[in-house]
Amino acid sequence: MGIEWGRIIELWPEIQVAFYQTLIMIGISLGVALVIGLPLGILLFITDRGLFWENRPVNSVIGFVVNIVRSIPFIILLVALIPLTQLITGTTIGPVAASVSLSVAAIPFFARIVETALRDIDKGVIEAAIAVGATPWMIIKDVLLPEAKASLIQGITLTVISLIAYSAMAGVVGGGGIGDLAIRFGYYRYDNTIMIVTVVILIVLVQLIQQAGDFTAKKLDKR
Amino acid sequence: MIQIEQLSKTYQTKHGTVKGVDDVTLEVKTGEIFGIVGYSGAGKSSLIRCINLLERPTSGTVKVGGQDLTKLRGDGLRKARLKIGMIFQHFYLISQKTVAENISFALRAAGTPSKKIGPRVDELLEMVGLSDKRNVYPAQLSGGQKQRVGIARALANEPAVLLCDEATSALDPNTTLSILRLLKDINRKLNITIVLITHEMNVVKEICDRMAVMQGGRVIEEGRVYDIFADPKTALTKEFISSVVSFNVPEEILEKCDGTIVKVLFKGEVAGDGIISDMLQSYPVKGNFLHGAIEYIQELPLGIFVMELKGDQADVSQAIHYLEQREAIVEVMEHGN
Description:
Chain A is an all-alpha fold. Helices cover 81% and strands 0% of the residues of chain A. Chain B: Pfam families: ABC_tran, NIL.
């Protein structure tokens, strides 16, 4: 199993395309996870017992739905959501189409991460804000989010890395991307060169994201 | 200022219901510093948290400035809380915000126009002596400084009441003293009513006007701090007092004494030693001082002497009677042989 350098040059355009596809999938699904998963995670937290928006029914329903989506294997979700994908994007093939399923998987994943991050905040700080007479919105904006900032950034890092792993499966529905390239060439065609190159790209990508996440989290934390 | 009536708070636990606060009725007058003392688990923390409804009482009412808070919910309760400041044992500052931002958070809660926030923050920082720490994060402050920020935040909206939940319990003795002085200063200058809970009797002795002692969710003793120090009624109160004002005579010394051991207490300006010498001259008894001190509580002297009285039983009891007539409080600790 040697590396044939010629093969890399030959397939370089394809690798580049796959790389962009991966970025598109992760970009879209991360964006959706942030926009929907963050409020959902906050809602999960503040409606829990003993918190300032305590609401058992809302909390149970959201928690239940989140658990259901999270328990479905991604590959099944990918196929099951084909009709929804068709409805939203008008197609079922390509990175944008694959982003629908990735988003659906990423929302509850990130929501739970947000909830856990908020749970780590000292309850006393929230209580002090209540005692001061702060509105629920102020507590969310000025207490919960700033206090959980560092762990939220770590959570985003974790989400992105999980999405990279999930996106490899997007090939099943013709989503494309680096992971898909690795499976198509490396796994099905025994093309070791492409497999190694794509895996190296993935490793470098994950390392960079992790380091960037750690750095940002540390830099922003004032504790 | 604060009327607590028949307040109870029960908690549901795995082992059934627990009464945190059990039928407490208290009144705190405008401008006074009221201390609630008790060991942990006595219910004092639950009680103070019921005053601003951080915990909703199971039954009973809490009136602050005439307004029954237990009738309020949501935004009404939130607005009422703007006028009740609170500080905590562990300060509970927003760690990701600067000192100034922590204080302006409280001001924004009250809807203060942004133009007025800056000057008001400066004013508050000046009051608590932290003007140079305006843009510093809490992690860079000492415990005492954090509590000062907590005080500034609590006072931001000019509350009528300040609640202190073990505010000095995490601080060293010197810092405790400086925070207590600050609280007393604020109380005098702003005429703000302060309720504090603590397990440290010296805190009460230092700044409180009146106090209550709690045990098992109930108030077992209540009154002016001076009166309670002079004449504690319950064993628990005596125990608390002995932690700051100790009159214990070593056992070996007591064993050597064969006379009657008495503890004599003089309140206020009564010149205790003069009365004792009068007594010794008027009755055929010999007196031996074993212990003596004059404590100052709220700037009022409290003279306490432990002495051995020797002589005829009848003479000794007449001598004790004489002291009582001269307004001393006499407690016979041990009868003579």
